[in-house]
Write a structure and sequence with these properties.
InterPro entries: GINS_A, GINS_bundle-like_dom_sf, GINS_Psf1. The protein is of the alpha+beta class. It has 6 helices and 5 strands; from the N terminus they run αααααββββαβ. 59% of the residues lie in helices and 12% in strands.
Amino acid sequence: MGSYGELATRLMQESKRSLDLQQLLPHNGPLIRSVIQEQHHIEQDIERAKNAGNWMAIVIMQRVILQNKRCLLAYHSQRTDLIQQIYWSHGCTFGPVMHIISANSSTEEINFLRNYHDSVGKLRSDVFPDDPFDIASSIEHPPANLMVTVDVIQSPGIICMESGTIDFKKGHRYVVRRTEVDHLIMQGYLQEL
């Protein structure tokens, strides 16, 4: 029972290194299988401890089993989170992301990426069937055709729009949705920059 839990700790150290580097390190299948095999050995040891009436050892071994499970889940969760980050940072394109991760991924992770890509594609077509809005674009920098910067040439006063109420004041600059101010630009109140 002395070294139980050390393999899962090594797995967590590997996961932390991957987080620190922000890189998908090679999937460590052998270490994962060793942790799972250790789980089976612990379960056998628990049966022996039950027969011997060693309740303290049973409690300790059950805690190790739970810790090993948490470590396995955390390892895989961290890897799938990183795959998702890579996917979104490359504009939701399957091919380039597959090229980046394929050498360091397990078959299950590649299947995860494939299913994730299919789900994002389905979301795009279901939610935005006719809209060119790209859900993969940066939130910090909206597409140029979505937002427009305008100077107020002549104050039209307070305008109620879908996004809220704006009191356009002469000489001020605003960033607003193009569709909400096109008519004000056409009428000469606002000037697009």
